[in-house]
Specification:
The structure is a homodimer.
Chain A lengths: L36 E2 L5 E5 L1 H23 L4 H7 L3 H4 L6 H19 L2 H14 L30 H19 L4 H17 L13 H12 L2 H13 L31 H17 L3 H17 L31 H18 L2 H15 L17 E2 L11 E2 L10 E2 L3 H11 L6 E4 L2 E4 L4 E8 L2 E9 L6 E8 L6 E6 L7 E5 L2 E5 L2 E6 L7 E5 L4 E6 L9 E6 L2 E6 L12 E3 L4 E2 L5 E9 L7 E2 L4 E14 L11 E2 L2 E2 L4 E2 L3
Parallel strand pairs in A: 4-5, 7-11, 23-26
Antiparallel strand pairs in A: 1-6, 2-8, 3-24, 6-7, 8-9, 9-10, 10-15, 11-14, 12-13, 12-15, 16-17, 17-18, 17-25, 18-23, 18-24, 19-21, 20-21, 21-23
Helix pairs in contact in A: 1-4, 1-14, 4-5, 4-6, 4-14, 6-7, 6-8, 7-9, 8-9, 8-10, 9-10, 10-11, 10-12, 12-13
Chain lengths: 658, 658
């Protein structure tokens, strides 16, 4: 697989003479090569609809919520405790709590860049005030290690997370640098930290890696932003070292932190799913900057295999609670789906990089699926509670955590305000704040609209500015209307993604003509005049979906999808049964008023047996079938505790009854 | 539920004026009340067949293997290191490694009692020589805590396992005391330890419990053996304290160590499955000695619910690797079956106590199922390798651990010689050595043969001695011939258990007559003369078994059983497919020469898809059906790495093909 250089950065690609003065956008990822070029959050504005509401909720609640909790629990206060000399006695939170402060700051930085919130900017700077004095003269910055009375620096690379924390520091600094410029004080802190990492772990330094990948993807991007090859060199050292057993063996095995085999040799993602996806994202970035198409091909193949065999219908990744890890191929149990919110975000990060590199719309499809069914599932409607794990089957109604209670990360609880390990809320916040960047891309002569939301998209093509106005009620409605609001004289193309789930049913209307479109990227060639309209109609009938026969956990069950949304049944919508496990699909779904979906289902009697295995175990239907509503999975649990299923058994195990 | 006193100990039951001089047997459990009375290993001898081979393997290999490994790894050497004053620097193994030394000693003690092996007795005494000087003047005995440079005594009740270690010390001392008498030196060590526990944790002592239940069941039995009510009082304190949140909350939740709710209030076993079953066994013992039928009823109901909803077809318990714990009701995934060998043993312990208390043959059925399909599955044919977890579905061929390598406890490996946490091998050894005790019981006027093996059973009835000679090739053959070899003038009964799986098909032949028998306890009334024969014929046709419709993980699959054996398919027997996951059941099983079982199966093609969920995912049959052998689950993996399934999909997801 060969990736062509970006048109506008082709000259700086292979030899990495990056120029920080070259046009950069407010993007989390700025590859120097690739089929598609990212657009920044200053170029893509979401005005209304599903994702605008989520961004507003982030603005009004999520970011503030994260800040309040980390103040309350003393995770931010750890920095003050260092300055006051009382950190050994007073330190709060887990060994990696600094990272969540940095992820909060990344969210703040993108949000300041997005809407210019001066109050939020002041809060960001106030955090910098507290962090800056903690940095040591050689650039080391961590509240947990290195002082008298603490464990020595880098004495526990397996679990200490020092490099992981730097990674999130650097990513926050990328957000700040790309929205405020490289002279920003926080960027300078990050630069000193990055230099320290290169000093400490360089060719003559510690010959090891961090137990949690993250520094790799951060160093490459920080190198891109600052134009410093040294940081990318260091990322390469980390990527190349991992997989050779440089970390200790642990009960989960070295696969947990991907130190079991080199990434170039792997065939599929494995081990801890957040670690695996973060590493994959970093390796892709490295491959792009170093022209290492073999590495890119290896990671792409790993992701392809992961999507084919180890990904939930929601886009969720990670089938094991133990080790928060991927399971084996086709091991996708609904009830034990870990599908950590952060792994979903790691998947979006990785698939976005593959999308930019290859232009394959398949990766944009995965991003859409994961955005709507993992990212959007985590936060509750209040913006102040979150799922850490995203089960596809809730057997018993979950517990609502007490107000102010810190939850176990993957408990039987409903969305919780905070967790002992609380990586997910800040990860959601930073992703939602930068979401605009994932919606559209450009090429030398075109703009590609990849995710659909009402708003504006601007891009520079051939030295001129073009702009599109997108109007849609997607995903509630399948019609997307794209109007040219600014154009250039030259011919250019408007690309629209038709998701694979649309099959052959999408319709494109342009210049009075209508035609079947996609799946894949559908391009309309210009030249365009202001006011020209391209309209895409995606089919929003409800799809009945069956699992690959190798998925043991899903045999005899079906799921329902509508547009990009995975649907589910909740017990609050099925008052005739005590648990949704008593329901059996007995017909085809219908879409009613306002898009309400329902399916005929039977209720079954479930006699208690002393022993659950017998020659005949057929269940008996109780009464006739009734219409049971299906709701978007991402909103489940917002009406109080309930039982829930995404995959619902068919009635093949039922015999007629009373 | 009311339990009647044992005939021979009725006078000493409720008020616990136990008399250590009263007739006791070489039994692990000697309840003072109950429907059935245990027979000791000196009364039940197994001569040949399945379990005799296992006992021989224990004699020749398993016990020695455990001793060699613990010498090699320094777990036994820890006691020497204490004496030499170098324990802080030199201690080896996990915090609970002392317990495995004691479990080894329990196995040795039973084995010495069973076959009078003087060389083994000398090895036992040599261990006592090394342990005795480690005990402190106040009775405290642990290599891990309490010395300068170590954590203080009882400073980590959640994870420190000090009381757990005492529990195994006491159980080993019960084995020694019941085979060698109470004057034994090791019994005296245990008595000092038990007194110390009562001093430290008594009414005025530490108001807490051990993170791993075990001391409870051990204290009751040690109290029974020594006639000391104090130990049973202490067990009561521990049982009553647990469940009130006396231990710290942990990520797994307090249910992990059953400290989430009092055992009297629980409805089903939950949390760590070994902890849960050990606690249940101790609570039953306590209920028996204290006439607490409410407690007995509560635990019985918990086990009944656990058998109905949380037990694998093998008898295995524990559906989660995370926390080695029970899952929710009907959460029984084959591929993630943890089904720890020790949990199976804990289940045998608990069900044996319920059997003695209630006389309900259901519990003997469970013991049989668990003996044949969990206990017997763990050790390999070499007696020097063991399964820790007992999966019901091996997706990829397991790795054979390198010789001398310590394995992770539940890795993807085949049977391993030893584990970092190596509770299972010693647990198998102690159980197999004392297995005779589980085979038969007596009442005032009868002997009950509960598990079938060729051998001799003796009992005292009405002041006289009776004896039975049992001859059978069970489970290879269903005929059990019981001959009276010693009798008394009075009428007495011979009871034979007909397992529930026999349905209405078992046949009893007695005095020239033949009749349908059971299920349950079938009794033949005497008087008997020497040479009288009772013959039971159990049906050994292969049974096709289906799961309760609530078990999502097993939908569309069937399992096969023959007699007490659960069968499975191994890839070494299906050379036409690369993995057993490609097989589909396409007919009914047949039994051929020498009991060889086979089933017609189809092979299916498994096309790779980029995404595993679609409108149509039916598999295509490749060729016609072929006869595929099924083998006993307990012997799987003995012919090298293979893939394996207990539950095999039917062909309902297959369409005809090429």
């Amino acid at each position: 697989m060969t990736v062509s250089p970006h048109p506008f950065t082709a000259d700086v690609a292979r030899n990495l003479t990056l120029n920080p003065q070259s046009p950069v956008h407010s993007v989390p990822v700025q590859p120097s090569r690739g089929v598609l070029s990212p657009l920044g959050i200053e170029q893509v504005r979401i005005d209304s609809g599903f994702w605008a509401s989520m961004q507003t909720l982030n603005s009004t609640d999520m970011i503030q919520h994260c800040e309040e909790w980390m103040e309350r629990l003393g995770w931010i206060g750890n920095f003050d405790a260092v300055v006051d000399g009382r950190i050994v006695a007073d330190r709060q939170g887990r060994e990696f709590s600094d990272s969540d402060v940095y992820k909060l700051m990344e969210a703040m930085a993108w949000e300041v860049g997005r809407i210019g919130d001066t109050a939020l900017d002041a809060r960001f700077e106030a955090l910098v005030d507290r962090i800056e004095p903690v940095q040591e003269p050689d650039g080391y910055l961590n509240t947990r290690f290195g002082r008298t009375g603490q464990q020595p620096r880098y004495s526990d690379l397996e679990w200490g997370h020092e490099l992981y924390c730097y990674g999130h520091l650097l990513q926050a600094a990328v957000a700040r640098g790309r929205t405020r410029g490289l002279d920003d004080r926080f960027v300078k802190i990050a630069r000193r930290a990055a230099d320290h990492v290169c000093d400490a772990f360089g060719p003559d330094g510690i010959q090891s890696v961090c137990g949690h990948a993250e520094i790799e993807v951060a160093l490459v991007e920080f190198g891109r932003m600052t134009g410093q090859a040294r940081y990318i060199d260091q990322a390469k050292l980390f990527v190349d070292r991992r997989g050779h057993g440089v970390l200790k063996d642990i009960e989960f095995g070295r696969a947990y932190y991907q130190d079991d085999e080199p990434i170039r040799d792997s065939v599929v993602l494995r081990g801890h799913s957040v670690r695996a996806t973060y590493l994959a994202a970093g390796a892709i970035d490295l491959s792009i900057e170093r022209g290492d198409d073999e590495l890119l091909g290896a990671v792409r193949s790993q992701m392809d295999n992961t999507l084919a065999r180890r990904t939930y219908i929601t886009g969720g990744m990670g089938a094991h609670h133990e080790g928060e890890s991927f399971g084996a191929d086709f091991e996708l149990p609904s009830d034990r789906a870990y599908a950590e919110t952060c792994a979903g975000i790691g998947s979006i990060m990785t698939n976005y990089r593959l999308l930019l590199a290859t232009g394959d719309m398949k990766y944009a499809d995965v991003i859409e699926r994961t955005m709507y069914n993992v990212l959007a599932t985590s936060p509750g409607e209040d913006g102040r509670s979150f799922f850490y794990a995203n089960t596809l089957h809730q057997r018993e109604p979950g517990i609502v955590p007490a107000i102010g209670e810190v939850s176990a990360r993957a408990s039987a609880s409903m969305r919780a305000p905070w967790f002992a390990v609380s990586c997910c809320p800040t990860n959601v916040a930073r992703t939602v704040a930068s979401l605009g960047a994932y919606l559209a891309t450009s090429t030398a002569d075109g703009v590609q609209v990849l995710q659909y939301a009402t708003g504006e998209i601007g891009a520079e093509l051939m030295g001129g500015a073009v702009a599109l106005r997108v109007v849609t009620d997607y995903p509630n409605d399948g019609t997307v209307t794209v109007t040219v609001s600014q154009t250039i004289d030259e011919a250019w193309t408007i690309g629209l993604r038709v998701p694979a789930w649309a099959g052959e049913s999408a319709v494109l209307r342009v210049r009075g003509e209508e035609r079947q479109a996609g799946p894949g990227l559908v391009e309309v060639a210009g030249p365009f005049a202001v006011g020209d309209v391209v309209e895409l109609v995606l089919p929003l009938d409800v799809r009945v979906v069956r699992p690959d026969v190798r998925v043991d956990a899903l045999r005899g069950q079906v799921a329902f999808e509508r547009g990009p949304l995975v649907l589910c049944v909740e017990s609050v919508d099925a008052p005739s049964v005590s648990k949704v496990d008593e329901l059996r699909v007995a017909g085809t779904p219908t879409v009613g008023e306002g898009g309400a979906v329902s399916v005929p289902m039977l209720s079954i009697g479930l006699p208690d047996r002393a022993w659950p295995f017998a020659a005949d175990t057929a269940a008996v239907a109780v009464g006739g079938s009734t219409q049971v509503p299906l709701v978007p999975y991402n909103r489940w649990g917002n009406r109080g505790p309930s039982t829930m299923r995404v995959w619902i058994p068919t009635s093949s195990d039922v015999v007629a009854g009373g």
